[in-house]
Design brief:
Length: 413
């Protein structure tokens, strides 16, 4: 059988793309390498309320809802933020992925599990041949168009004529019980170069006395092993260790997080969506909402292109134009913010915490405009307030200017 669309990967991007294309009448094959959709787990599962509103996601996947955060600087200065409304839901990520795949199947997509695509080639008749192994047996699928939604470790991009994004961040976390939380609706974030190089650690509550406790770090030769970094955080951090000392580790899971956007997300007969394309906010590592958005756009573009019979680059370019218009500005802005944060020393970051905590208008801006999905909405007024605060102190103004000038230069090279 020749499929109209073959989607590689049944995560949020892949299942949404499969659902959207199948709903438009395309014959769709959704390929998942694991024995069960949604497993193994890789995600903290903090998902913006926008996702539930925009995609009518099943409420049964919600474990907890959060509206507050406590941020800890490297020297453990604390910044408390509390919004009036719920910002995010903490979800059962495996269950969400399963429900999204079921939605795609109900729309007409065909789902195949335990199937790993190891090779993709274009044949002389213009079709794409996907060579796979299902239960260790060779198999081949043919399709007119491929949507790559493999995740943070895409293996097919080079064969499909595309270049993967930058090296990813590495993450590891525990599901823990019997821990001391600030509040059931409050996320805790911990910063420091020694603690989590290039990112941060977290305690994300999933219920009373329960949380996902983890960290991400840049994948560099000098970065200590993640299990060692996480052990130090749990056992020795001056604040977190007291909260976690009676905790019990119920589950351990980890994964990769893309560190940058793909150069180009389309080729002849091919589109790339979700983590494979780097549709992840560099400031927080969150990517499910953007993956759903990109998957929907890829599915719509696939259906439109198949209707016109044009699957060349000129036709599929519309997909990249669409997602860049919707998500590109946010991804560029948060990328610049991440670069600036990574250029700050721990001492400089402590000073930024002091500047924020010392100004009621800055804290109010964060609480008013804070948005997990669109972080630029709060970063812009927050930076404006910080700049006003630092005008009276040349050293503070120089600190902020130096960090963002270097970040901008890094973005251009």
């Amino acid at each position: 059988m020749i499929y109209d669309v073959a989607v590689v990967g049944a995560g949020p991007a892949g299942s949404m793309a499969a659902y959207t294309a199948a709903r438009e009448g395309c014959s769709v094959l959704l390929i998942e390498e694991h024995t069960q959709v949604g497993k193994p787990l890789h995600c903290t599962g903090k998902l913006t309320v926008h996702a539930f509103q925009d995609f009518d996601l099943p409420r049964e996947t919600i474990l907890n809802s959060v509206r507050a955060a406590v941020l800890h600087s490297p020297s453990n200065l604390q910044l408390h933020i509390r919004r009036k409304q719920v910002d995010s839901h903490i979800i059962d990520r495996a269950l969400l992925d399963q429900r999204l795949a079921e939605r795609a199947v109900s729309a007409g997509a065909e789902l195949t599990l335990k199937t790993r695509v190891h090779n993709a080639q274009r044949s002389t008749d213009g079709l794409l041949n996907l060579r796979c192994k299902t239960n260790h047996e060779a198999q081949e699928f043919r399709s007119r168009l491929v949507i790559d939604a493999e995740g943070a470790r895409p293996m097919l991009l080079k064969e499909l004529g595309l270049t993967p994004g930058k090296s990813p961040l590495l993450g590891l976390q525990y599901q823990m019980s019997n821990i001391d939380l600030y509040a059931p609706d409050c996320v805790e974030l911990y910063f420091g170069r020694e603690l989590a190089p290039g990112f941060f650690a977290w305690i994300v509550p999933t219920g009373p006395a329960q949380a996902r406790v983890g960290l991400c770090a840049q994948a560099r030769p000098t970065t200590p092993p993640l299990h060692e970094l996480l052990r130090r955080f749990v056992e020795h951090h001056p604040v977190a260790s007291r909260k976690l000392k009676e905790g019990k580790i119920e589950q351990v899971f980890g994964g990769r997080n893309p560190a940058g956007l793909i150069g180009r997300s389309f080729a002849h007969g091919v589109m790339v969506a979700g983590d494979s394309a780097g549709h992840v906010k560099p400031t927080s590592g969150g990517g499910v909402y953007f993956a759903l958005k990109a998957g929907e756009l890829a599915g719509k573009t696939a259906a439109e292109s198949l209707t016109t019979g044009s699957l060349d680059e000129g036709s599929l370019r519309r997909y990249e134009v669409a997602w860049r218009r919707l998500l590109g500005g946010e991804l560029r802005f948060t990328s610049l913010a991440r670069k600036a944060l990574n250029l700050l020393s721990d001492r400089d970051l402590d000073r930024v915490f002091e500047l924020i905590a010392g100004r009621e208008d800055t804290v109010e801006a964060i609480e008013t405009y804070g948005d997990t999905a669109f972080q630029s909405r709060v970063l812009r007024p927050m930076l404006s307030s910080l700049t006003r605060a630092s005008v009276r102190k040349p050293a503070d103004l120089l600190l902020l200017s130096r960090a963002f000038a270097k970040a901008l230069l890094a973005s251009l090279t």
